[in-house]
Amino acid sequence: MILALESSCDETAVALFDATRGLAGEWVHTQIALHERHGGVVPDLATREHLRHFAPLIERAKATPEFAQVKQVAVTNGPGLAACLAIGVAAAKALALALRVPLIGVNHLRAHAWSPFIAAHAEAPATFEDRLAEWLPHLGLLVSGGNTLLFSIGRDRQIRVISSTRDDAAGEALDKGAKLLGLGYPGGPLIEQLAGGGEKAAFDFPRGIGRRDELDFSFSGVKTSLRYTIEKMAAEEVLARRADLCASYQQAVIDALLRKTRGALELNEYASVGLSGGVANNRTLRTAAEALARGRRLEFFAAQPKHTGDNAGMIAFAAWLDEGADRSAGWDLSISPGAELTAG
User: Fold this and answer.
1) pTM value?
2) Which residues bind substrate (predicted)?
3) What's the domain range around 155?
4) Per-position DSSP letters for 66-100, written without gaps between them
5) Are residues 147 and 243 in the same domain?
6) Residue 34 has pLDDT above 70, yes or no
């Protein structure tokens, strides 16, 4: 049984994971309503909320029969907001000391990379590792507000970055686009909602780097194009055509993501394709990514909606499965706010 804590940004989360049957409990306190007033995450407020809510969430975990079986404590130690990470690591150290169990540091991005497999493990825990071998090598697309990455998981279970974004992340581009259109925070879901009533071909926005052999992403161009388009329109026209703008803008972002994923699939052989991160919750992107994988007769895995954002379930899962988790630092475990996907 693994007790996991997550506090890399604006979600306070606790989870219990049993390798023999899957997640035994998950508890999350979200801060969206608080940060919505400010148009984005305010680090000082996020840190304060972690201080307020970790104890009640841990108490809820302690009230379960599974808590008595905890043999390890895992915690996100990077990347993320420094003060937020520090709260989680401090809490995890205190719990590990009180329970007299080992402490494991988990890289948040690596946890996202493994998150599409959580549901498959829950379906058949006893045979999961044998089936995982059949799904490797795996091509993963991690799309969030802070990161856009293509990576592979080889048969040796080593994660290797294939490409990343040269400027904005896809989620950041969606949030900035929403701000330009006068929408609220977080912007991505609001753009998706309005896009459902719009025409995706109404505006021709750029799709990032165009060369077939270049797999890096770029989203600054589409954001700039949206700004110039809006500046040429009257305020009344922008409001009247906001659904079309959202649909076209969202489609440009999705096309850029899929084009690079398609390019990676053409360069190497894979047994499966995965989608993870906060933007993976976008239904249009999920449908298109699955169609891309199925069209090549590859298995497709997408993180469940509850595991696309910041959550402790994926931290616990990675603490069990990921060979890159830090199992040796012990009480010397430190935060790594700028850690990358390949960091252990």
Assistant:
1) 0.93
2) 142-146, 175, 188, 192, 282
3) 136-270
4) GGGG--EEEEEEESS-HHHHHHHHHHHHHHHHHHT
5) yes
6) no
